[in-house]
Amino acid sequence: MRSIFINILKYRYILSILTAFVLTENIQAKKIIIKMATLAPEGTEWHGLLVELGQEWKNATNGDVRLRIYPGGVVGDERDMVRKIRIGQIHGAALTTEGMTEVNQYFTAFNYPLLFQDYDDVDYVRSELSTELYGESEKNGFKLLTMIDIGWVYWFSTDPVYTPNDLKKTKIWTWAGDYKAVKLYEENGFQPVPLTTLDILTGLQTGMINSLGLNPLYALSQQVFGIADNMLNMKWGNLTAAIVVDIRTWNKLKPNYQDAMMKITKDIGKRFQDKNRYGSDNAVDAMKEYGLKVNTPSNEHLKEWNGLIDQMDKSFRGSFITINAFDRLKEIKKTMDVKNAE
Question: Which domains does the chain have, with CATH numbers?
Fold first, then answer.
């Protein structure tokens, strides 16, 4: 009888240990680490946004969701990030238009040069395209959490550039792997040189490239202006960025966590955008103090640039900008032109 009682106690003890183990495993299974990559170096405001995002996500999910950030391009260029999300090596990324065009063809609409000259135009196009931008991203396996713009893109160069012909004499940096952009530039008399973002400074130092379209905040943070110390004071484009998470990872989250994380991301993104939309001006002023020369084109020069874009317009369709995105953008541009004329 005594032996039976002892066996029962042993059984209960073992059962309690197994139960505790299972419960611990279940608790740990609820913890999700989202590995997110970005080109933004540590210490920049874009990186700071992600740090804040991770803290807010952790608080809102009682620690069940953690964000692990891989800054400074350690995962590779943006095309590498998208590829690694697809194969599950990482789970998300903070991407510019370049990376987002690999996620969703409609982001190529933001590649149209000289289209955006004020933030009202940016907001209008983004609003009109929102269904395609969010919907198509999700169909392609990416949850688009928010979109923000980082500011304007300008031409930086080692020698002054005022006209299209001046730019054609330079060796232009293009994103590595963007074969359509290379082809488009070459067909129109330019000299594109594809390099990864990590090779930009080396390319400038060796003379492999001597001009590039960049946002001033990036040019300042990477000290690009120390070599490419001329900036053409003409808004070539708007740098749109987005935060995406692999849909498979997103769908593992509780619905209330998804709602909270989506709201947090949009709120932080809006604060970042409101603060930094005009940060480009501050960055330009800072670079001017250290030798950056800002070259303002004349009205005649601007006519040449607009003439170039008119000439290249048809070649954008199906190359630099996908056919669907180009046609949809043209529809939106018509209504935008009418709105701006009122």
Answer: 32-341 (3.40.190.170)
